[in-house]
Amino acid sequence: MKEVVPKTVVLANTGVRLSNLEEQLSIADGAVVGTTFKQNGKFENHVDVRRVKEFMDKVKTFRNKL
Questions:
Q1: Biggest alpha carbon distance in the chain?
Q2: Which residue among 4, 21, 42, 48 is buried most deeply as judged by most CB within 10 Å?
Q3: Which SUPFAM superfamilies match (predicted)?
Q4: What percentage of the chain carries pLDDT values higher than 70?
């Protein structure tokens, strides 16, 4: 997509986790994240602030390397 329409924003829409974050953000501009932020990684649970912080800290570290 980026080669065909270079100014298009590409988002990874599902399945982005700590374990694949760098791989996903290597090809996408951002991500739609849901279950990864939930307590115990379960959709029906509340958001776990600790999980959000850990994820976003890794995003910041990755982006600072670019």
A1: 39
A2: 21
A3: Ribulose-phoshate binding barrel
A4: 100
